[in-house]
Design goal:
Layout: H1 2-19, H2 39-48, H3 54-71, H4 79-89, E1 94-101, E2 104-111, H5 114-131, H6 137-149, H7 153-168
Antiparallel strand pairs: 1-2
Helix pairs in contact: 2-5, 3-4, 3-6, 4-6, 5-6, 5-7
Length: 177
């Protein structure tokens, strides 16, 4: 009798140990940017930054918004609102994650957390702006913002591909984590 309790207790401990992970890191407070007083802009600039050169990335971002204001003649919307709309247009709702079941690996569609949605869309916009050829980074970023605003460009295509993959693997949705 006593022996059974020890085995079940150790089995329960092993199960609990598997479920428990490291403590979740605390969310850092991100200060808003100096020009627009917006946290979203600060996050974007942090993703854009290389080697701790935040002033350079702020210059690139603000120059890109100036170029966008010149390209898109929309009286109702400011350049910042156009950028936010462009980010919304390329924000994915679902993604696929690999999940091993038995011997097979399935691509399981899962919804994306709101903070990750924002992060993924920002990273995609920056990635596809960097991939564009030739011009300065501000011009490439401005071109990507305008394309995303018009539901075009590499970042928008990436979002559509993510949604298409999730739709194709909808049959495996019951393997959710």
């Amino acid at each position: 009798m006593k022996n059974e309790n020890i085995t079940t207790a150790s089995a329960e401990y092993k199960i609990l140990k598997k479920k428990m992970r490291k403590a979740k890191p605390k969310k850092r407070i991100i200060l808003p940017d100096p020009k627009f007083n917006d946290q979203k802009v600060s996050k974007f600039v942090n993703h854009l930054m290389y080697d701790g050169k935040k002033n350079t990335s702020y210059e690139i971002f603000y120059d890109a918004l100036d170029i966008v204001a010149g390209k898109v003649k929309d009286e109702e919307k400011s350049a910042l609102e156009i950028w936010k709309q462009a980010l919304d247009n390329i924000t994915p709702q679902v993604e696929v994650k690999s999940r091993r079941v038995g011997g097979a690996t399935f691509q399981v569609p899962t919804e994306i957390r709101p903070d990750r949605k924002e992060s993924v869309s920002m990273k995609n916009m920056i990635l596809f702006a960097r991939k564009r050829g030739g011009k300065s980074m501000a011009e490439k970023l401005a071109a990507e913002i305008v394309d995303a605003f018009n539901n075009q460009g590499g970042a928008y295509k990436r979002k559509e591909d993510m949604h298409r993959m999730a739709e194709a693997n909808r049959a495996f949705a019951h393997f959710r984590f």
